[in-house]
Amino acid sequence: MNNPENENDDHGEVFLDESDILQEINVDDEDLPDVDDEEGASEAEMADEPDDSMHIFTGHTDELYSVACSPTDASLVATGGGDDKGFLWKIGQGDWAFELQGHKDSVSSLAYSSDGQLLASGSFDGVIQIWDTSTGDLKCVLDGPGDGIEWVRWHPRGHLVLAGSQDSTVWMWNADKGTYLNMFQGHSSTVTCGEFTPDGKTICTGSDDASLIIWNPKTGDNIHAVRGYPYHTEGITSLAISPDSSLALTGSKNGSVHIVNISTGRVVTSLVSHTDSIECLAFAPSSPWAATGSMDKKLIIWDLQHSSPRCTGEHEDGVTCLTWLGETRFIATGCADGKVRIWDCLSGDCVRTFSGHSDVIQGLSISANKDYLVSVSLDGTARVFEIAEYQ
């Protein structure tokens, strides 16, 4: 056996064979000293090194849940999060930010009116605040729902605000006057998603009760309630309306995706492929395609003329949000692995991966000039990525 003194001599070379081993001790990598920069860097530090963003907004002090880019001002962004705050800030202007104060719970949803003049902030406190985007002033406070706000939407051509609540109701107000217009009752659980049709004539809402309801905005009447076979059997998580206002696309917790004819209330097709919860979906603005993203780690681009997948984008983790890049063939996805990816829907290839976030991406929005993609994450930051090359 070797001389024990040599074993403790840092400067002498010691050669051992298996018979010399008295005891094996498992040492955590983190307990080892840094030998040099490359070997000593922890996995987390290595993972944090790349940051492809050109602007980072760090005004929040908690997880971020919502983001909206102004439809008229290419630099103006709104974000909301678990710190009960919203912020208005400008891309590339790190010294300018305006705090949207007054909410008493997480800011869960943000939406700009189509003319960009007003911003609605919805919160789990059950209240919606309307802000004048030119001055930052609070214009009015809209209340009524008995529980948290899940989403807010504007009428495509006016200052009417629609919101869905955890108390199973949907509410509509006139934001110019700050007045209540209608309450829509018919769901039996949280209203998880809702939209005006692009022509502004109809409202569609989806619920955790697995039903889609189509409403008349003026009268509050329930035109169609879509539930039961052959529709969803588990809660609806996401909803999109086709550009021509004729079809509603819905996804649910169990991975099912259905398309409903809005005028008849009938299920016209089912898009079968996903195996886990649908987190996001959207019709393509200018192609007969639709996109669905799921916790099964897949983005699927569907050929709606044949109700079949035309390409599938594989991710490292669940797909949490998506947005088409204008009327191009490109789509962006946000993922639970903290990455934002750009996909070419003709080839099915991932053409760009944006790194920078260290936690789940919760939302994506595109600037008015289509040059920037803004993402918000559970890591508490919003990041801006340049996407002008994908126009």
From TrEMBL:
The keyword Cytoplasm is annotated on this UniProt entry: yes
Subcellular location field: Cytoplasm
Listed InterPro entries: WD40/YVTN_repeat-like_dom_sf (IPR015943), WD40_PAC1 (IPR020472), WD40_repeat_CS (IPR019775), WD40_repeat_dom_sf (IPR036322), WD40_rpt (IPR001680), WD_repeat_multifunction (IPR051179)
Key words of the record: Cytoplasm, Repeat, WD repeat
Keyword match Magnesium: no
Protein name per the record: Angio-associated migratory cell protein
Highest taxon above the source species: Eukaryota
SUPFAM superfamilies in UniProt: WD40 repeat-like
UniProt signal peptide: none
Organism for this UniProt entry: Cannabis sativa (Hemp)
Repeat region (WD), residues: 57-91, 100-141, 142-183, 184-225, 229-270, 271-312, 312-353, 354-391
Disordered: annotated segments: 26-52
Biased composition (Acidic residues): 26-51
SMART domains: WD40
One Gene Ontology CC term in the entry: cytoplasm
PROSITE patterns, per the entry: WD_REPEATS_1, WD_REPEATS_2, WD_REPEATS_REGION
